[in-house]
């Protein structure tokens, strides 16, 4: 019952992820199609990443953790904290990575603005939905960029 709830995305209350907004806007006729597409997206990444990173299993586990945290239907701050905590294992790759300044301050900005935006939109109803959505889109973009830059 719990896993079915996560896979079917029935609760469309705002959260850190971006799927709630997408499924709030999609027509009911296409809902099951997009549920299959979004849930299969994670599965289709498993084999190519395993082939590409077969010589680095610890890094592969990190990439899987980051992808699941980014594409999960009901993510939490703990999901992001898990892969950000594992980021310290790859100090050599971080030293050679480009755009670390922008990524670091992107994460800091999202971390500082998340409680403020949540309070303004959910509790005080004085903020636009799109500002709240753009904040979490920037979190997803930072996560995706970090994974891509570490893979190259």
From TrEMBL:
Top-level taxon in the UniProt lineage = Eukaryota
Designated name of the protein: GPI transamidase subunit PIG-U
Key words, A-Z: Endoplasmic reticulum, GPI-anchor biosynthesis, Membrane, Transmembrane, Transmembrane helix
Provide the Gene Ontology terms for cellular component: GPI-anchor transamidase complex
Which ranges does the record mark as transmembrane?
Answer: 29-51, 58-77, 97-117, 129-151
Record-linked InterPro entries: PIG-U
The pathway where this protein functions is: Glycolipid biosynthesis; glycosylphosphatidylinositol-anchor biosynthesis
Look up the record and give one Gene Ontology term from the biological process aspect: attachment of GPI anchor to protein
Q: Where in the cell is it found?
A: Endoplasmic reticulum membrane
Of which family is this protein a member? Belongs to the PIGU family.
Where is this chain primarily localised?
endoplasmic reticulum
- Give the species: Aegilops tauschii subsp. strangulata (Goatgrass)
UniProt keyword RNA-binding present: no
List the membrane topology term(s). Multi-pass membrane protein
């Amino acid at each position: 019952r719990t896993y079915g709830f996560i896979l079917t995305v029935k609760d469309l209350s705002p959260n850190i992820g971006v799927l709630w907004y997408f499924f709030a806007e999609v027509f009911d006729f296409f809902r099951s199609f997009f549920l299959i597409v979004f849930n299969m997206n994670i599965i289709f990444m498993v084999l190519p990443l395993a082939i590409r990173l077969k010589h680095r299993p610890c890094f592969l586990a990190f990439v899987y953790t980051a992808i699941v945290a980014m594409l999960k239907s009901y993510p939490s701050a703990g999901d992001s904290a898990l892969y950000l905590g594992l980021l310290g294992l790859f100090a050599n790759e971080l030293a050679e990575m480009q755009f670390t300044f922008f990524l670091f301050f992107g994460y800091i900005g999202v971390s500082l603005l998340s409680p403020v935006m949540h309070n303004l939109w959910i509790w005080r109803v004085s903020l636009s939905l799109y500002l709240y959505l753009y904040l979490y889109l920037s979190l997803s973009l930072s996560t995706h960029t970090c994974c891509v830059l570490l893979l190259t």
